[in-house]
Design goal:
Oligomer: heterodimer
Strand content of chain A: 15-25%
Radius of gyration of chain B: 22 Å
Bound molecules: flavin-adenine dinucleotide, iron/sulfur cluster
Largest sheet of chain B: 8 strands, mixed
CATH class of the largest domain in chain A: Alpha Beta
Strand order of the largest sheet of chain A: 5-4-16-15-14-6-7
Distance between the termini of chain B: 45 Å
Largest sheet of chain A: 7 strands, mixed
Structural class of chain B: alpha/beta
Strand order of the largest sheet of chain B: 3-2-4-5-9-10-1-11
CATH architecture of the largest domain in chain A: 3-Layer(aba) Sandwich
CATH architecture of the largest domain in chain B: 3-Layer(aba) Sandwich
Order of helices and strands of chain B: EHHEEHEHEHEEEHHEEHEHHHHHHHH
């Protein structure tokens, strides 16, 4: 009997917890704590704890599949490559789209981008999830210079005040949430702004139930209150920042009363939050990227600059990522090239018949709703590279089976810029292959073997280190230590834990304030009277992990108790939720843990306002 | 002929083992003999992973690979018996030798009582244990309190009340008391632990009591079972190991140190349990802390008392699926099922992402129950207060009654055939 532990990185969220894969006789039989990993010290959430289950799922795709007469037939790799190469070769670059993945490794995304840009010659490359992240990252770049979390997950625990806005780390990034708990145990005050009484809101010292979509108004209100009380960090502003006056003018109208009205809270709450946030240094802001979160990030950045909470441990703007490699996919260049389409634009173009060939790696974009599904159905030739028969894969013409994270080598980059290894622990199921390998072999079939002659993932990584400045100086050898490296590597043995300790990475080296105005989103109306607080996609990995399915067997819409009563909705009632772009029927979760007039639900169609109807027979 | 109760100094004759061994290399040498003589099919021990702070369970079948597993890793906070249950069918079909700390030994007995491990197929060599330190905290402690780069350290040990490091350029010791005062040092369960010499193993090995010319070069071995005596004799006969009777003065010193450690354990128990308050206050405190739970199930996965195929905390009648934090019932179920048998191994606390002092809560209750009923878990095969049921049999019984509600069925007799 063979029994080994193989250290790896959790494939779920952007926290990037270290785990040990327990391998017995060539099979991953479980997950064991990896105490030595500095991110999570052996602790994991339920997803990490069960992340071996999907590896062994009977639902894994094990051979290439080619659709003939509407049905998938097993095919050889050779035939699958031939089929794809034939289509791609004749295709016009601007009629092809490539969707990379925030879940697969840096190596995969890097060669994927090269295939798109250098071989197929299209500018239409993007990674899924960037939909949300792009805006946020842009905000960070403008304010500070780098498009990433300014600080480290670990150092959140040394904060003395924490403002959580647009994020629910205890449930979404639990091992980052742990750091909030640790800080609080050390005396930090935790402020949470959320319409839901989320798990994070429950531990808050101050929970402020702001209306969904009013985060910017709330943050501006705090900034205004700080300035009014004269508690801004004048030295820091003078020495290290630019554009303060612009920001000051922009937030001036955001008085506590004005903000209270927009956010549906008391004026007192705004001043209280400002007081707590400035009561002690360092103060940290924890947030996540939602759709259109650029302004949210800019408003967060303003607050950090205003109080001098940047460039020191325990401070900063800490953007937590939902998917394991959202940071890396962007770092290695899976973003639209000159005038290329983003994912939403590709979908729109596909719907309009302008994109005829789409190549999707490791993402189930069909889960985002009927509009996407319609567009996929219109695509003339769809290639999907995945582990599972997702709704997206079902629509493909050719499916290429990917190996799981436990079956291949590679690296992923977590929210805090830490580049960590995944390691091959077992052989891939069936004839599935590592994503990078599939892409290199396809490139070969297209006659481009010269630039894709990689023998292993490490060779690709060495290329990344040469081409991507942030990755300079990183090698597989120096990722062997459990600390691995937080880019940029130049900051020390383990890279850089806190960005901007000396100066900002902006052109003038200064942190840039910006004037951010609150823009009201799609307002609730008589037709759609409920505001949507949060929507989350249903993940392919989770759906194939029985222990998680058991916890969340049914998709639910959370409704305030009073609202439910008015509508005659009882716990478990079937409720039709509809918005402008779609509708779905879900079970009701009736709760006091959400503000009246607000709902939260899984992402089956994107909406900011919805109506609810109890369906027949419920 | 060695016999149960003997106290010996032992040292290896194997040059490779000697190089790596903590002291006399007795533990590793006996494993070598056990493998070579086929007394065991494999040994499960702790070895160095990525560095000296990274303890990794390692299965060894080839005696030649054993030398690499010698030496003590004080950052090794793992619990091996649960791995044997999970991944080795509870040693149902193979004989396994395991190096155990006190908590490992106790966990073995508790799992065996619940028929999750076949102790007949387990050989345990115990190591005395003054405590272990969580690895990431240890590194921080070395950087902050010692002013030394943790990656420059090549050896760490706990000796004479000090945590000592050897590094490029010297060695340095700081008293464990001082470190713990500053929030570093041993895990909180280790501070309360009183299983310093694991006599329920087949042999109990350590450094306490080795004095005179052999100090630092021999392992102190207390022979705790006939199985242990035979192994030791076999290893000596094969020339792998040499022994001599322990120096009586050394024996006395060892007793004194053990006594002092027990007192220290009592001191920490008092400190920790008093901090919990009493009665309603204690309940309030427990409820407040557990209200952060994110229901990761790590405590249950790791606890050596939890073994159910289908955990009651997953029954929707008690705990709503998907709800975070879960209601208090989640924790009450654990308290009800575990408290009489908790061995204070600390796993449920060290692995809790919500920073809930679970082990402290459970241990506090265990100690109260022990006072009331006199049952001491982890020592032997004596059954706990609420004698266990066999999961499968019990489930089948419930199933056959047509309802899975235990309270409706508790008085229904077992169906025939059981
Ligand atoms: C955490 C810890 C604390 C200790 N504290 C004391 C003490 O206070 N007083 C005392 O007299 N002795 C203590 N010991 C025991 C002592 O350090 C030696 O292990 C023992 O004397 C045997 O020496 P040896 O040369 O024969 O062992 P070796 O031949 O070197 O073999 C050591 C064995 O211990 C195993 N091991 C190493 N680390 C761990 C771990 N973390 N958990 C489980 N097994 C492990 C190895 O896999 C190996 O099988 C402690 C050991 C450990 C692991
Ligand atoms: S917090 Fe994120 S990375 Fe960590 S175990 Fe959970 S899902 Fe995985
Ligand atoms: S609980 Fe006891 S036996 Fe276990 S590691 Fe801690 S001190 Fe050692
Ligand atoms: S309750 Fe905790 S401390 Fe007690 S035996 Fe279980 S895991 Fe160990
Ligand atoms: S380990 Fe902690 S967070 Fe996880 S289920 Fe147990 S008590 Fe809850």
């Amino acid at each position: 009997m063979d029994f080994t532990y193989v250290p790896s990185t959790c494939p779920y969220c952007g926290t990037g917890c270290g785990i040990n894969l327990v391998v017995k006789d060539g099979k991953v039989e479980g997950i064991s704590p990896w105490h030595r990993n500095p991110v999570n010290e052996g602790k994991v959430c339920i997803r990490g704890n069960k992340s071996f289950e999907f590896v062994n799922s009977a639902e894994r795709i094990t051979t290439p599949l080619i659709k003939k007469d509407g049905r998938f037939a097993e095919a050889s790799w050779e035939d699958a490559y031939k089929e794809i190469a034939a289509h791609l070769k004749g295709a016009k670059g601007d009629e092809v789209g490539f969707v990379a993945s925030a879940r697969t490794c840096n190596e995969d995304n890097y060669v994927f981008k090269n295939l798109a840009v250098n071989v197929v010659k299209t500018a239409n490359i993007d990674y899924c999830g960037r939909r949300c992240n792009a805006d946020a990252v842009k905000g960070l770049v403008e304010a500070f210079g780098q498009g990433a979390m300014t600080n480290s997950i670990t150092d959140i625990s040394s904060a003395k005040a924490i403002l959580v806005v647009g994020s629910n780390p205890l449930e979404e990034n639990p091992l980052a949430g742990r750091r909030v708990i640790m800080a609080q145990k050390n005396g930090a005050k935790v402020i949470v702004a959320d319409a839901r009484t989320s798990a994070t809101a429950k531990i808050a010292d101050l929970h402020i139930a702001i209306n969904p979509g009013t985060e910017v108004a709330f943050l501006n209100g705090i900034a205004a209150a700080i300035i009014k009380a004269g508690r801004e960090n004048k030295d820091f502003i003078a020495q290290k920042t630019s554009n303060f006056e612009k920001c000051k003018a922009a937030v001036a109208p955001c008085t506590p009363d004005a903000v209270a009205k927009i956010c549906g809270i008391s004026a007192d709450a705004v001043t209280k939050a400002a007081e707590l946030f400035t009561a002690a240094q360092p103060a940290s802001i924890v947030t996540s990227a939602g759709a259109g979160s650029g302004d949210l990030i800019r408003a967060c950045a303003n607050l950090s600059l205003l109080t001098g909470n940047i460039g020191i441990a325990g401070a900063g703007v800490n953007l937590l990522r939902g998917k394991s490699n959202a940071q890396g996919a962007m770092d290695v260049g899976c973003v639209p090239q000159d005038n290329g389409h983003s994912v939403p634009a590709m979908i729109e173009a596909a719907g309009a018949g302008k994109i005829k060939t789409l190549y999707i790696m490791g993402e189930n974009i069909a889960s985002a709703g009927a509009m996407v599904v319609d567009a996929l159905d219109k695509v003339g030739f769809l290639v999907v590279q995945d582990m599972f028969m997702t709704a997206t894969a079902k629509r493909a013409h050719v499916i290429l089976p990917s190996a799981s994270f436990a079956e291949r080598d590679g690296t992923v980059t977590n929210s805090e810029r830490r580049v960590q290894r995944v390691r091959k622990a077992v052989e891939p199921v069936g004839s599935s292959k590592a994503d990078w390998q599939i892409i290199c072999e396809l490139a070969k079939a297209m006659g481009a073997e010269k630039d894709f002659a990689y023998k292993n993932a490490e060779e690709i990584f060495n290329d990344i280190a040469k081409k991507v400045p942030a990755y300079a100086g990183i090698t597989y050898a120096n990722l062997e230590k459990p600390e691995a490296i937080q880019w940029p590597a130049s900051g020390g043995v383990f890279g850089t834990a806190v960005l901007y300790a000396d100066k900002f990475a902006t052109r003038d080296g200064k942190g840039a304030f910006s004037a951010v105005e609150y823009k009201a989103g799609e307002a609730v109306s008589a037709e759609y009277p409920f505001a949507v607080a949060a929507q989350w996609p249903t993940g392919t990995l989770s759906l194939n992990t029985p222990s998680i399915v058991r916890e969340f067997s049914e998709a639910k819409v959370s409704i305030n108790k009073a609202d439910a009563k008015t509508l005659g909705i009882k716990p478990g009632s079937r409720v039709k939720v509809s918005g402008k772009t779609g509708s779905s029927t879900l079970a009701a979760d009736v709760t006091t843990g959400i503000k009246a007039g607000v709902v939260s639900l899984p992402l089956t169609f994107a909406a900011a306002a919805v109506k609810l109807e109890k369906t027949e027979g419920a | 002929m060695t016999k149960k109760g003997d106290m010996l100094y032992a040292w290896t004759n194997d040059a490779d083992i000697q190089k790596k061994a903590e002291l006399g290399g007795a533990v590793t040498s006996i494993w070598k003999y056990a493998l070579e003589s086929k007394a065991v099919d494999a040994v499960l021990v702790i070895s160095k992973g990525k560095d000296l702070y990274d303890a990794k369970p390692t299965l060894v079948k080839n005696a030649a690979e054993l030398a690499n597993t010698a030496g003590s890793l004080h950052c090794g906070t793992l619990l091996l018996p649960k791995l044997i249950k999970k991944y080795f069918d509870g040693a149902a079909n193979m004989k396994i030798g395991v190096t155990v700390k006190g908590c490992d030994a106790m966990a073995f007995y508790e799992l065996a009582k619940r028929k999750q491990i076949n102790l007949d197929n387990i050989v345990m060599i115990g190591v005395n244990c003054g405590g272990s330190v969580s690895p990431v905290l240890a590194r921080k402690m070395i950087a902050d309190k010692y002013g030394v780069d943790p990656d420059k350290v090549h050896k760490e040990e706990i000796d004479k009340g000090q945590f000592i490091i050897e590094y490029e350029g010297g060695h340095k010791g700081i008293s464990v008391d001082e470190l713990e005062e500053a929030g570093y040092g041993r895990r909180s369960n280790c501070r309360r632990c009183k299983m310093k010499v694991p006599r329920q193993a087949d042999l109990a090995c350590g450094n306490w009591g080795v004095i005179g010319p052999r100090a630092g070069k021999a392992t102190f071995v207390e022979v705790c079972s006939e199985k242990g005596a035979n192994l030791l004799d076999g290893a000596v006969k094969k020339g792998i190991l040499a022994t001599e009777p322990a120096n009586p003065k050394g024996l006395e010193i060892r007793g004194k140190v053990e006594g002092a450690m027990m007192k220290l354990g009592d001191k920490w128990r008092k400190h920790d349990f008093e901090s919990l308050g009493e009665g309603k206050d204690r309940l309030k405190k427990i409820m407040a802390e557990t209200s952060r739970c994110i229901k990761c199930y790590s405590c249950i996965s790791a606890c050596p008392i939890c073994y159910c195929v289908d955990c009651t905390t997953k029954n929707p009648a008690y705990v709503t699926p998907g709800e975070v934090p879960p209601n208090f019932m989640f924790h009450l179920i654990r308290f009800a099922h575990i408290a009489d048998s908790c061995v204070n191994c600390g796993q449920c606390q060290e692995l809790c992402p919500a920073e809930i002092p679970n082990a402290m809560f459970m241990h506090a209750q265990q100690v109260e129950l022990e006072k009331m009923f006199g049952h001491v878990p982890g020592l032997d095969m004596e059954l706990p207060l609420m004698a266990f049921v066999e999961e499968k049999v019990e489930r089948a019984r419930l199933h056959n009654t047509g309802s899975d509600m235990i309270y409706e069925n508790v008085f229904t007799p077992l169906p025939k055939g059981h």
